[in-house]
From TrEMBL:
Keywords: DNA-binding, Transcription, Transcription regulation. This is Glycine cleavage system transcriptional activator. GO terms for molecular function: DNA-binding transcription factor activity; sequence-specific DNA binding. It comes from the Bacteria. The gene is gcvA_12.
Length: 309
């Protein structure tokens, strides 16, 4: 049997490749940068090849280093999957759903009771973060995210492409300023969402106004938020009219807390989709949760289509 390198050296190697520098790798492992560098040297001596090119900006994996890391990373994924399976066998299934804060608060939270009623023995922890977690990290099992799905389609399930349309609180509307055509919206304050994600951000007010055939004013001066959930909350409080995503406003529209005065909508630039860790669906409970999430998203899409036409 071939002798294997020390586990700590492999951990250091994996951390440096994932974090792209020694300092960040050391922080993730709770050791000093010197200790990480020593483990990398020991691993290169063990395998007999250079795994990194030393550059002024840090360490860059060589071609052989990249090949080696692909296999090492899969090994650590198997370790995490084994630990998850053991915990599930001991204590019952415990799943961590990672998603954006706005998705967690304005879509998933209202549906969590339905899941608990369906599967009371399966614990679900929600990790709300804008940061996209990496495969192999232990703080998530399934993530509901947005953007371009992985090209290989592995461990991924597309959901739907959301739409945005003007929404407001009924209390905002004035009898002397009815909204009967798109230009009427300019008589009210506008609430804007800007994620700062370049082409992935939702359509802006100037996009919607042009699509509706309205000349865009030189100054829209909207109230701007970086989180869609904050914009929805401001809209519910009657602060203005927002371009609300169906995912975050469908429930409030059904309840009459918000109204959509005009049925002109624009699609989001990218779809929402689910991704999961290798091994995350090894249990029937996890597969059931994934299927349930998929159906809840499909139901929301049907509701959005019914509201917006």
């Amino acid at each position: 049997m071939n002798r294997l390198p020390p586990l700590r050296a492999l951990q250091a190697f994996d951390a440096v490749v994932r974090n792209k520098n020694v300092v960040a790798a050391a922080e993730s492992l709770h050791v000093t940068p010197g200790a990480v560098s020593q483990q990398i040297r020991q691993l290169e001596e063990f395998v007999g090849v250079a795994l990194f090119d030393r550059e002024s900006t840090g360490l860059r994996p060589t071609a052989l280093g990249q090949i080696y890391h692909e296999h090492v990373a899969r090994g650590f994924e198997c370790f995490h999957a084994a630990h998850t399976a053991l915990e599930a066998a001991q204590h019952g299934t415990h799943l961590t759903l990672s998603t954006f804060p706005s998705v967690a608060t304005h879509w998933f939270a209202s549906r969590l009771d339905k899941w608990h009623a369906l599967s009371p023995g399966v614990r679900v922890h929600v990790e709300a973060t804008d940061r996209e977690p990496k495969r192999g990290e232990s703080n998530w099992d399934i993530r509901m995210t947005y953007g371009s799905p992985p090209a290989d389609g592995a461990h991924c399930r597309p959901l739907f492409t959301d739409r945005v349309t003007p929404v407001c609180s009924p209390s905002l509307l004035r009898a002397d300023s009815p909204i009967e055509q798109p230009a009427d919206l300019l008589h009210y304050p506008l609430v804007h969402v800007e994620w700062g994600w370049d082409e992935r951000s939702p359509p802006a007010w100037d996009d919607w106004l042009r699509a509706a055939g309205v000349a865009v004013p030189d100054t829209l001066a909207p109230l701007t938020y970086s989180l869609s959930g904050m914009a929805v909350d401001a809209t519910l409080r009657g602060r203005g009219i927002s371009l609300g995503q169906g995912l975050f406003t469908a429930d409030s529209l059904k309840q009459g807390l918000l109204i959509a005065p005009l049925k002109i909508s624009l699609p989001m630039p990218y779809p929402y989709y689910l991704v999961w860790q290798p091994g995350a669906l090894d249990t029937p409970d996890a597969r059931q949760f994934l299927d349930w999430l998929t159906e809840e998203a499909a139901q929301t899409q049907r509701e959005i289509n019914a509201i917006l036409g």
